[in-house]
Each structure stands twice: as structure tokens, then as C-alpha cells.
Write a structure and sequence with these properties.
Elements (H helix, E strand, L loop, with lengths): L9 H19 L1 H16 L1 H9 L4 H44 L7 H12 L1 H19 L2 H11 L2 H16 L3 H9 L5 H39 L5 H11 L5 H49 L4 H46 L5
Helix pairs in contact: 2-8, 2-13, 3-4, 4-5, 4-6, 4-12, 5-6, 6-7, 7-8, 9-10, 10-11, 10-12, 10-13, 11-12
């Protein structure tokens, strides 16, 4: 009987150990790695704006500075002016949820819902959330530092926030800043492919962001105006919830419409709930027949289902930064899998080229 012998080259052992060591170091520095990746994504996101200014013969430093002032200034202004009323509505809504559920006259057979009613009203988590919202509201109403505090909380502290801003500005300032970074961290034989992969993914991310932002803003404004006209409580909160829910195809608008109808029913009975349902149907038809064909379909870059899964996974793994990075990472993964599939099919049809 012949003997089968296995031999492992010393080079393979060293390579494996180096890979394991690198993975361990990355795990230890995972927070820093997340901040660096976030900086790369932010720099790539504002690159089209920088190129727009550059085409008008504005120096890249000034163009980058203008884009940062416009983007961060707009986000700061939106949060400063719109966040306080949203927080106030959210705190008041959470306090009134048990009353709304009781108004719906849930049958006794639905014991789970009845228990949920009591739980929402008395649980420490709900009271803690309401207290947190009240604290945030006070911080926003007293000083603009509340916005900075909110950003710092999302990014894991003031130092992390400053680091992301500085790194992303540096990456954006250099015309090939992101490309140079990718070439630095990738093996030499994969440098060109990594840069090409990111550039293609960047286009998908940009198209997805354009379509999603336009869709959410238009739908949110329409819902807000409609709820305001028919005098529904928490119109701004419900409109913001509808805008955010638009990221979930079909079910997002259903959930938002159900929540708004429940609030309307508790205030004005079946008549007001029916009017709200009608409003959401009209907005949904407007979205399906006008917004999607004219705007969204032309700029879609990432499949909606992949976006949902990526957002959930990113939030579970890394919180806010995970959510922020989920779509870019999903877009890169989608492009990589597409390349892998094309390469596999090419080998199958032309084995001699492998």
C-alpha cells in the first residue's frame, strides 16, 4: 500500500502566521480601522463636489474647504434647527403610546399587545429613553454645542470625531489621496485592481445616495404637508419616520402609514385614520408612477434588499459607524462578487486562458 506524504513549505507557514498576526492586530485596532474607513468613505463622497469646483478653476484646497463648509454646515444647520422639535415630539409620543394603544381597544385575547402596552408605559428602558431625549432637547435649546455632542456620541468621542474630519480632509485634499491609501495597504499585485474596484463601487454608492436622498426628502415633505393640513399630531415626527422608512421597499411605507393611521385613529377615530390612509396611498402612487421612473431608476446603484441586510448587519456589528459604512462595504462586495462571477464564467468558457 502506497504512503501519502504531506509537506508544508516553511514559506507557507510564515505567510499563514503573518496573516493571523495581521488579523489579530486589525482586531485590536478595529476602532481605529473603522474611523479610517469612515474617513475614506467621506472623502470619496465629497469628491464629485470637489471636481465640480475644480472644473471652474478653483484650487483644490479651496474647493475641498468649500465642500466641507457646505456639507458639514448644512448637516449642522439641519440638526440644529430640526432636531429639537423632533426630539420633543419623540419624547411626548413615547409618553403617550400607552394612551394610544388603549384608545385602539385591543381585544383581551391579544394578551401580548396588552402586556406590551403596560411595558411601554412602565419599563425602565422607556423612561430612560424619554429622560435621554429630554436631556438632548435641553442641550440643543441652550447651545449649539449639542450638535457637536451628538456627533461626538455617534463617532465615539470628540477625539474620534476630530480624527475623522482631519483624515477625511487629508484624503480629499490630495487628488489621488484615496488611491494612494489603497495602494499603500494592498499587495503590489492587487493595487490596480483594488483602486479600480473602489472607483466602480464609489459610483454605485453615489448613485444610491442620490436616489435615496431625493426619494426620502420628497416623500417626507409630501407626507409632512399632508399631515399638517389635516391637523395630525406629531406631523414632523411621522414625516421623518416615513422618510427613514423609505429605505425599506414596500414594507417601509406600510409601517409608516400604519403608525400614522394609529395616531390619527386615537385622535379622530376611523374618519381621520381613513383620511391618513388615503394620503399615504396618494403619496405611494406619486412615488411609484413619478418619482421612481424619473429619478430613482436612473440612479439606482445598490439593490434595496442588499441595503437592508447591510444596514442591519452594520448596526449590529459596529453601531452608528457600522450603519454609515454598511452600504459602501456592500457596494464593494457586490462589485467584487460580480468580478468573481465574470472571471469564473470566462474560465469555464475558455479553460485555456486560465
Amino acid at each position: 500500500m502506497s504512503e501519502t506524504r504531506f509537506s508544508i513549505a516553511p514559506g507557507s507557514v510564515i505567510t499563514t502566521l503573518l496573516i493571523l498576526l495581521g488579523a489579530y492586530v486589525l482586531w485590536l485596532l478595529r476602532d481605529l480601522v473603522l474611523l479610517i474607513i469612515t474617513s475614506v468613505v467621506i472623502a470619496s463622497a465629497i469628491e464629485p463636489g470637489i471636481l465640480f469646483f475644480a472644473r471652474h478653476r478653483i484650487p483644490r484646497f479651496i474647493a475641498t474647504l468649500l465642500m466641507y463648509v457646505l456639507v458639514f454646515g448644512s448637516v449642522f444647520a439641519l440638526i440644529y434647527f430640526f432636531f429639537p422639535p423632533i426630539i420633543a415630539d419623540a419624547a411626548q409620543f413615547l409618553s403617550s403610546v400607552p394612551q394610544y394603544l388603549n384608545t385602539l381597544n385591543v381585544p383581551a385575547s391579544f394578551a401580548g399587545i396588552s402586556n406590551a402596552t403596560n411595558l411601554i408605559g412602565s419599563s425602565h428602558q422607556a423612561q430612560s429613553l424619554i429622560s435621554t431625549l429630554a436631556t438632548l432637547q435641553g442641550a440643543f435649546s441652550s447651545t449649539s454645542g449639542g450638535v457637536v455632542q451628538l456627533f461626538a456620541t455617534f463617532f465615539g468621542g470628540i477625539f474620534s470625531l476630530v480624527l475623522v474630519i482631519v483624515l477625511s480632509f487629508y484624503f480629499a485634499l490630495q487628488e489621488t489621496g484615496v488611491d494612494d491609501f489603497l495602494r499603500l495597504i494592498m499587495p503590489a499585485q492587487h493595487e490596480d485592481y483594488a483602486v479600480n474596484l473602489w472607483k466602480r463601487s464609489q459610483k454605485k454608492i453615489g448613485r444610491w445616495m442620490q436616489g435615496q436622498i431625493l426619494l426620502s426628502v420628497i416623500v417626507g415633505v409630501l407626507v409632512y404637508l399632508g399631515l399638517l393640513i389635516i391637523n395630525v399630531p406629531y406631523a414632523l415626527l411621522l414625516a421623518v419616520f416615513t422618510s427613514l422608512a423609505e429605505i425599506i421597499p414596500i414594507f417601509g411605507s406600510l409601517m409608516a402609514g400604519a403608525a400614522a393611521a394609529a395616531v390619527g385613529f386615537s385622535q379622530g377615530g376611523i374618519a381621520l385614520a381613513a383620511i391618513i390612509v388615503g394620503l399615504y396611498i396618494v403619496v405611494n402612487q406619486f412615488e411609484t408612477n413619478l418619482i421612481y421612473p424619473l429619478i430613482v431608476k436612473k440612479v439606482v446603484g445598490v439593490p434595496p434588499l442588499l441595503v437592508i441586510v447591510a444596514l442591519i448587519a452594520g448596526g449590529v456589528i459596529a453601531g452608528f459607524l457600522g450603519v454609515l459604512l454598511s452600504v459602501p462595504i456592500a457596494a464593494v462586495a457586490l462589485e467584487f462578487l460580480s468580478d468573481f462571477d465574470k472571471r469564473k464564467r470566462r474560465v469555464q468558457h475558455h479553460p485555456h486562458t486560465a
